[in-house]
Request: fold
Amino acid sequence: MNRACLFVLVAFAVIIASPTALHAQVPSPSATPLPDPQVFEDEAMHFRAPSGYYLLGQRHITVDKLTGDAQVVAGWIHPDRDHPRQIAIQMEYYEGNAGGFDGTLEGQMRDQFETAIFKNKKSTTLKNGMPAVFMEMTSGSGFNVQKFYILLWADGQRGVAIVLKAQLGDISTETAEQTISDVSAVRYPLGRE
Reply:
């Protein structure tokens, strides 16, 4: 009997002294998943950049910090040496609708690019039906002509634009529309920041 009691005490002491024996019975917490580098998401929008585009960076700006000037909040690059492309999401404070925001953004782009020419402006919707505007802009001269494909909308507090920049002739309008089409948005929910 003493031998059996001694064996139980030794086994109990080994279990208590062994940290792996105690931890093996308690499930360890799962690691926090890393954010998807293809996704930008906030209170009122969700955008997924296509595969092949690499995140340059992103940040979140609350509505009270936005001004009437566009601020870039996220960017991706398609690093093809001969045919580079960039996607940027920009936001600014704006209380109107998409139909009015296109004129505001167009004026800002004309101030930034001296040879800005806009064409093919059309009303459209995002994936979830949010009213939007799609338009094209070219800028530059000679071998430095760049093409910008712009998808924009207004969510009641912000004017938001997704801009795809490429060299002239690198991609078609249809390809550009598809590249920046994985986006949905809703009216900005005030008080949820």
In short: The chain is about 25% helix and 35% strand. Residues 143 and 168 are 9 Å apart (CA to CA).
